[in-house]
Amino acid sequence: MRELGVGLLGCGTVGTGVIRLLNDAGLAERVGAALSVRAVVVRDLERDRDPVVPVDCLTDDLHRVIDAPDIDIVVEVMGGIDPAHGAIEKALSNGKQVVTANKALLALHGDSLFALAQKNSADLLFEASAAGGVPVVRALRESLASDRVVSIHGIINGTSNYVLTRMETLGESLDDAVTKAQEAGYAEADPSFDVGGQDAAQKLQVLSALAFGLSMSTEVQRVQGIDSIQPADFTHAASFGYRIKPLAVARGGENAVESWVGPALVPMNHVLAGVNDVFNACYLKSEAVGPLLFYGQGAGMMPTAMSVVSDVIEAGRKLAAGAPGGSLPAVQSEAVADSSSSEPQSVQEQPWYLRLCCRDQPGVLGRVAATLGGHGVSINKLVQKNAADASSAEVVILTHVAGTDSVRAAVAEIDNTADTTQPTLIMPVEDPA
Ligand code: NAP
Ligand code: HSE
User: Fold this and answer.
1) In terms of CATH architecture, what is 349-428?
2) Phi/psi at 75 (nearest 5 deg)?
3) Beta pairing, strands 149-155 & 242-252
4) Ligand 1 contact, 234 CB (< 6 A)
5) Hey, what CATH class is 3-135+301-333 in?
6) Closest protein CA for atom 7 of ligand 2
7) Ligand 2 centroid distance, CA of 185 (Å)
8) Is the pLDDT confidence value at 82 over 80?
9) How far, CA to CA in Å, does 181 sit from each of 10, 48, 202, 228?
10) Which fold has domain 137-297+336-341?
11) pTM above threshold 0.85
12) Which SS3 state, helix, strand or coil, does residue 75 take?
């Protein structure tokens, strides 16, 4: 049986899990060739490694993988932009099959890397780049190639879902929950990418490219982090019949896609409201099949490694069959992608959750209501709670259906007065139905 050489760029949380799975002797039959790990690039050769890591393969020389004739499949699990970008470019130019989990890199340079893969009859596979162990990339790339996706509602950052779940159910602080996510291997090297929504936005760029044919570098229109959520928000949301979830949403229009990332109120009885901890879910709607749900662990060593190794198997099968390349039918070429746009044709209207910290003085609530009304935003429910210092009050408002622009303009006007003492928290109420 033919033996294929595998080289890893990176051997941290994900890379260690990849080596563990590649040690399964049963893989050879599934691939049609044996897979042999021949080189593992790391930054620090002195660092203690899991016993599964073959120490004789460790190197700090990228060229041992990207330029070596005995490496057929390159697995990039180092993360970041440089040197990962140049290394993948070189590996593809050398005609190697490449597997990556790096959504940050794909969101920035995906289009040119896919073009390079095509030019060199190589594959660039990226299942683990969105939703960790949930096989949604392959589903969009292959299973849904016959359908037209209408919308994506995803919980696609495991860390922020884990953090919000712990804040809500255990009363833990955001900082403590982030530390636990780091210890569990869920968080990015810079966890502010998880908390701030950028990681989910990068993943949504990857998924939107597959679902709607956008360029992978088409930026998400609005990105909001989870760092302004306070314990009282969970209680208020529950009293209105909702849970707060870190959503990533993209909706296709005729020539445009509306996309945003941020915490949102999801109806308590919707399946996404029950997605907790590090679990991810992608609730897709497409024209022929209707709603589809993909659910599983979105981060962590073994779930992510499973996705990476599923790509290694696909890359290996193609080499074993003597036909690498051509795995990107749903990713647009740069020329086509440039003509697609993420500019919304008409922005979806929905109800909104507003938490204002108001001065507790006569006339304040009246002015807040008048400003909202002036922008066509109508109040559905309102709760007021006095703050401990008695000089301010927490006012929580659930609006009727209103447009993003109207709500944001009204809140900007309110926050520009002395009536509020902190920036108002705005969250959409999103019912994926
Ligand atoms: P990690 O634990 O920080 O591991 C990174 C590895 O890359 C380490 O082995 C590190 O070497 C090596 N490395 C980093 N910079 C390097 C450089 N300049 N030269 C040589 N080696 C370098 O990261 P991870 O959590 O495994 O994540 C890896 C990738 O997978 C990222 O793109 C991430 O976004 C993605 N991902 C992660 C998860 C997850 O749950 N963790 C899930 C999905 C996708 P040392 O060991 O010597 O430090
Ligand atoms: N930091 C990411 C998350 C890893 O928490 O979802 C998976 O991509």
Assistant:
1) 2-Layer Sandwich (3.30)
2) -110, 110
3) antiparallel
4) no
5) alpha beta
6) 299
7) 9
8) yes
9) 20, 21, 19, 18
10) Dihydrodipicolinate Reductase; domain 2 (3.30.360)
11) yes
12) strand
